[in-house]
Amino acid sequence: MREVILLQRSTTSAISAVCVLGCLVACNISPSPEPNATLLDLAAIAHNDAAVLQSKNTDLVQQRHTDFEELISEIQRLCGTNSEGKVPDSCSNEVVQAAVDKHAASLKETATESDAATRSAQAIVSAIDSAPSESLGLLGQQLVDLVRAGAAAPQSGIAQLDPRDEINKGTSKDDLIQDGDTLKKALDWEYSAIYGLGVALAHSPAGSKNAVSDAITAHRDRVELLESSFAESFPNEPIPRPEAAYEFSGYPEPHDAQSARAFIDSLEADSAAWWLHALSESHSPTWRSLCASLAAQSAVQR
How many angstroms separate the CA atoms of 192 and 182, rounded? Predict the structure, then answer.
């Protein structure tokens, strides 16, 4: 029996550690570093969202303000500091804000909060391939927050494609090989999620069984995608298979409707956290897109 431990705290710490490492790397700067264009684009979208929705005075407005500030801080962190310990002139507040304002002026206003959240979530998924690797933890968390705020789960990325076609057309097999160890761990995680949801299904009331069944189907779809990806990238290795049973440490034990709901919510929150952690450690564009999309899908409230 394989033990599954509640992940949320340890995963957050791991993402933080990646960000700290990125900070150390970013301190060696070029003579005139330029603000990262991908992060500038995302900052402009966040800035536009906050401005357009300002009159609504909702949690999403505050979230987009926070997202904007985090992105500006990340841009300047990546620029590093000069010999005086200051942000270089090429990445000053004035320069970065001017670039953000210029891009934000070209954006279309969105009519509803849901539209804004969905557009912004989709923008993050589309930007994952070109974003700095040390910024992936931040972008992944903003993506999940947007989905939880009402954005539709992103519809682009490898998670919506036939993995065989995607690997054959869009990437080399060496691309996914870089993330092979995490791919194996991902399969084990998804196997455990299916097992746990199956246990919870038995204790769920009739009115919620369809939602739990849909969640199981979603995780089975992920397994099919991951197994196909593994077979294409590692043709000489056997595909990892599920354990006979999994023990869930730290989770509510499903024994009635209320505890089953608590178990499902904890498991899906951990699914989002698991894929965020995988994103923060990803190497290849294909795997980045997959991790981001599955983290977002896990964050959808069922």
Answer: 15
Distance CA 3, CA 245 (A): 9
Q: Identify the CA nearest to 215 among candidates 282, 300, 128, 158.
A: 300
Give the tens place of pLDDT for each residue, 98-156. Answer: 999 999 888 877 768 888 898 999 899 889 989 999 999 999 999 999 999 888 777 64
Question: Which residues lie below 8 Å from residue 268, measured CB to CB, with a gap of 6+?
Answer: 215, 298, 299, 302
CATH number of 163-299: 1.20.1260.10
Domains in the chain: boundaries: 37-149, 163-299
N- to C-terminal Cα separation, the chain:
28
In the chain, the percentage of residues whose pLDDT exceeds 90 is 52
> Buried b vs exposed e over 22-61: b needs ≥16 C-beta within 10 Å?
beeebeebeeebebbebbbbbbbbbbbbbbbbeeeeeebb
Task: pLDDT band for 8, please (50, 70, 90 cuts).
Answer: low
CB 113 within 8 A of CB 266: no
